[in-house]
Amino acid sequence: MSQLPVSQLKRFKDEIIRFMMMYKFALDEMETRIGILVEEFEMLHEYNPIEHTKSRLKSPESILNKLFRKGCDISFTSIRENIKDIAGLRITCSFLSDIYLISEMLRNQRDLTICEEKDYIKHPKANGYQSLHLLIEVPVYMSDRQENVCIEVQIRTIAMDFWASLEHKIYYKYSREEQAVPERLLRELKDAASSAAALDLQMERLHKEIVEIKEEQSEKLDRIIINNQQFALPQAFLEFLDGGKEE
To answer: pTM of the full predicted structure?
Structure first.
C-alpha cells in the first residue's frame, strides 16, 4: 500500500485544522455578540433574558460519519453544503418571550444571515420536543480572506432544555444496549413535555405580572445604574432632555 508524501499529509492536516478553526471562530464571534446584547439589555432593563449558553463543535470523525450516512461526496465543499450543524450554540432562557426576543435581536444584526428557521415551539415535534432552531451565517475574518460560516443556534427555556437532556440520556442508554425505548417511557416523555410546556406558560404569565408591578413601582428617572453602581443625573442634563422647558 503506497503512502502519501509527508508534505502532502501535512498540507491535508493544515487544511483540516483551518477548516475546523473557521467554525470555532464563528462560535466565538456569536458568543461575543450574545454577551454584548445581554450586557446592553441588562443595563437598560435591569434584566438578563439569558440564563446560560453552551457551544459545541463536531469532531472530524462525527462529520465524516454524517457525510457517509447522507451519501455525500467527501470534500470540504460537500461538508459546507450538506452539514449545517458542525458548530452549535444553545441559548437557554427563563421565559418563552425571551426566546423570540433574542431571535429578534439576532435578526437585527445586518451582517448575520438567517438561512433557516424551525419553530418547534409553535409546532412541537411528535415526541413533544420544543425549541427554536436557527441556521445563521456568521462572517469570519481570517488573515487572507472573509468566510460566511453556518452555525446552528438553538434557543429554549430551562424546562425545554431539561426535557431535551433527559430524552437524550434515555435514547443514548437504549441505543448503546441496541434496544428500542419502551413504549411506557415514550408515553411518559410525551406527558413530561406537555407538563413542561404548561409550566412555561404559567411562568410566562407570572413574569408578565411581575414586570407590570415593577413598572408601576419604578424608581425615579433621575439616576442610572451601570455595573450595579448608581449615578445621579445632573439637573441641567434633565432639563436639557425635557426640552429646556424650565427657565
So the answer is: 0.80
